[in-house]
Design brief:
single chain; mainly alpha; Alpha-lytic protease prodomain-like; Alpha-Beta Plaits; 3-stranded mixed sheet; elongated
Length: about 325
């Protein structure tokens, strides 16, 4: 499966969230609806997250240096992990706090700004427009993901993807759409029943949703930061390239270790058995040929280390 880097999906999500955040903030300022404030902060957090993804992607393209001989590919993983933290704190925890605060206001009998406002219809319009905009952003993310997803399912794609941008945008856009539905329910039922608890309930659902998505993202990006092996298809291609001849005339693979040091960069370390009668010159030539075959089979194999060992019974 190709790693796939698609700034188009990230940029589309960024532009959509910036526009939606502004309209939500205006709706909250006019009505005081708790759900609208939670959704506005959600959109602001998502906008910041997409900016972080673009920044991390740009920094990861720096060439290797003496201090970082394997390059900066993992910066994309670092910024993706920061995204999960931002989503958890700024988005999820803030929404849960706002839900508690709104419920406390209702319980203490304070006036409900949403019910008393002459602009109470504004949040409904804003939410409906936001649903359309988020839907278009999600459609772009799905289209870009389909280019690299192949035939695997969506859950498997999110779990196995080595490039973090597309899974994050997919999850954020999906969470945004569901969150907008929660906000619509909260605001709509508040206006229909004149009961402010519905607004607090919708806000709490948004908070729980964002916390759940943030935890999923944190778990997946943590695995990438720790260093994941190449996919099964790439490992099979590497084994076939070694076994095709060259080292030890098709010598044994004693062990193979691979690790993604970036979405599009794989480190390959393989130890092979060679006959004790093989000359050093032949072994060196065979290693060079094997490296070429590995790079042809797996272009992402940026760093290849082949260690010959004496073949033993």
């Amino acid at each position: 499966m190709s790693t796939g880097e698609s700034p188009r999906a990230v940029i589309a999500a960024l532009l959509a969230n910036l526009g939606i955040a502004v309209t939500k903030l205006i709706a909250w300022a006019l009505t005081g609806a708790s759900s609208m404030l939670a959704e506005a902060i959600h959109s602001i957090a998502d906008s910041g997250n997409q900016a972080l993804l673009l920044f991390g992607s740009k920094r990861s393209k720096r060439p290797p240096s003496e201090a970082h001989p394997f390059g900066y590919g993992r910066e994309r993983y670092i910024y993706a992990f920061i995204v999960s933290i931002v989503l958890f704190t700024v988005g999820g925890l803030f929404a849960l706090y706002e839900a508690y605060h709104k419920a406390h206001e209702v319980h203490s009998g304070q006036p409900n700004e949403l019910l008393d406002s002459r602009w109470s219809w504004v949040p409904i319009v804003v939410l409906l427009v936001a649903i359309v905009m988020e839907g278009l952003s999600l459609r772009t993310a799905i289209a870009e993901s389909n280019k690299v997803r192949g035939t695997i399912g969506w859950a498997t794609f999110i779990r196995r993807a080595k490039a973090p941008e597309l899974p994050i945008v997919l999850l954020e856009d999906a969470a945004a759409l569901i969150g907008l539905v929660f906000a619509l329910i909260g605001v709509g039922m508040t206006l229909l029943t004149a009961n402010g608890y519905w607004d607090a309930f919708g806000t709490a659902l948004i908070g729980l949703l964002l916390v759940s998505v943030a935890i999923v993202l944190a778990v997946e990006t943590k695995s990438l930061l720790l260093g994941e092996a190449a996919g099964d298809d790439n490992q099979a291609a590497i084994v076939a390239a070694v076994a095709a001849g060259g080292v030890g005339h098709g010598g044994d693979i004693i062990h193979l270790r691979t690790m993604h040091i970036g979405p599009d960069q794989i480190l390959v370390a393989v130890k092979v058995g060679v006959p004790p009668t093989e000359s050093a010159q032949d072994v060196a030539a065979a290693i060079d040929a094997t490296e070429r075959r590995i790079r042809e089979a797996v272009p992402e194999a940026s760093y290849i280390f082949i260690e010959p060992d004496i073949r033993r019974p």
